[in-house]
Please model this.
Amino acid sequence: MPSPPALPADPPPRPASRVAVTVHDVARATGVSAMTVSRVLRTPQQVSERTRLAVQEAVRALGYVPNLVANGLRSSRSNLVSALVPTVQGSLFSGMVGALTEALERRGFQLTVGQIGYGRSREDDLLRAIVGRRPDGIVLTGILHSPESRTMLAASGIPVVETWDATDDPIDMLLRVSHDAIGRAVCDYLHARGKRRLAVLTGGDPRALRRADGLAARAAERGLAGPPVHLLDSPTTHRHGREGLRALLAATPGVDGVFCSSDLMAGGVLTEARALGIAVPEQLAVVGFGDLDFAATLLPSLTSVHIDGAAIGALAADMIAARADGAAVAERTVDIAHRIVPRDSA
Amino acid sequence: MPSPPALPADPPPRPASRVAVTVHDVARATGVSAMTVSRVLRTPQQVSERTRLAVQEAVRALGYVPNLVANGLRSSRSNLVSALVPTVQGSLFSGMVGALTEALERRGFQLTVGQIGYGRSREDDLLRAIVGRRPDGIVLTGILHSPESRTMLAASGIPVVETWDATDDPIDMLLRVSHDAIGRAVCDYLHARGKRRLAVLTGGDPRALRRADGLAARAAERGLAGPPVHLLDSPTTHRHGREGLRALLAATPGVDGVFCSSDLMAGGVLTEARALGIAVPEQLAVVGFGDLDFAATLLPSLTSVHIDGAAIGALAADMIAARADGAAVAERTVDIAHRIVPRDSA
DNA sequence: CTGAAAGCGCTTACAG
DNA sequence: CTGAAAGCGCTTACAG
Model:
């Protein structure tokens, strides 16, 4: 089946990587000083039209692209913001990343996205590499684990926004999501629909575990049996949902409501329920997390917990931009609401 | 339903962002020169143990994090690689990004991921921002449209790897994927299974359209009716699949095989077929693209086109690392194979 | 409106 | 094994 066309003849060798063009090259070509070139690029209204046009022409002719590294070193603003997410896979955070990218771009910042993974091993190294580039802001997804990382960030003086989690001791700014409250709300939601034998299928990331704990705590308050919690690897997939449901029912027959730590996994649970001939939601209610795009169009459609990632991204951009402009941020902790979107699966 | 706990009292104000610690601060604290501090950090074996320990202690005590911006300006290596993808959403490229991240990290490079969007408007600006930071390499997903961008990249002297597409005129290095060949292969695959009335549901990105063209060209060679091509927005979702199938069947009843431009959309087609009582694959064969994780566990499982994104990422990292070390890359164009993974849906 | 000088924080290249 | 000087490519701050 793999039949890519034959390799074409290699193109002619590429010219040896020439030394990049600098302000001085442009200045020399135009007969002005480097400063004037810099002004044409940054504050063109301060330069006479004649000079401006000549410089612009030389910039074009030489293909000059200003070195932002040098710029960032001299002026102490990098126009760079770094975001750290557990993983770009799974798209739970893509709404946030998209909104952040757009809001920052409008303000002249560039966003770089780093993947921190669900383990903690790379955290310190990655953070050192990021802090070393002196970004104008750092957006973290979740709370950092290592004290070293927290100290390094605090000492760097770089504005930091922690998101998607709750903590009593934020490094700097916080967009607060209470996973405990979400777990409790899901318990109440399922209880209100007559479900009494709840269970949790969850990946191992700390936020998902906190949701599981919240649900369990609330179940205990309501006098329900301690819900079984099935732990799976992160990031969770459709396969986890299928296998997880089978394992769950084998271990605990009679479960009538399950809270999944991702929509993808919840989709797998729906598929497995269909394969096993289990009626959803009558015999088994299913709740997902993330309210991703496909939740609404699955069959049955998936009840899921929605968190406004786009709002998180936009708020984080506001906070960082304000700080970069030297302004204070009045509300350094902002609560982000969640809501359960009721659909056919629960 | 939205009931986040009450706001906690704001934490004590953060210390005014102190000026960052530099080599000179460490040098002063230790009573050595800045050069010696630099050596302790980069080539510790060149420094006496006594000095080394003292400097390391000061580094720790002061929380010194070397400024990589200054480093990158002086030494002409940034240890930074930039990748551009249409979008991180949809996870088609997450295998590539993951492998790229890992392979580069092992070699001491940091990866930044930029989203170029499926439109072309941001391309030039984004590329200028990237080239301006003088990365040691740039990985592009797909072929750039604008001549300005291509000229700027070529003039920059930065190693460039174009991926996920085919072109006769690569900017520099190329990991070649032939979407035309994929479209043709899918046509042959469906034809071999007795399907004669084919159709395409596709997003508008250029590579997906090239696959549609390839399928159409092959269908014409085989004397099949010109397959209807239904065009949808990119990135395509589960919803697109459901709505697209309905529209397709309304416009062209009797279609017996459909090639979708993404697995997510193909999943939607499977769902809609179930809702409409259409037997898959007997009445309608469905082929996806990407062979994402969930393709194997859908019900019926999804036949899909697999491209080894992890191999693309690893190869791109090899090529860029070689160039950064001043080595030549012998094979500047490498073909990336595709294969159709046969499952129950077709 | 324009420019000469200095410096951002490092490391290269040289000298000892 | 260690350091003084110079410079990477810009822009700030000053002067005219």
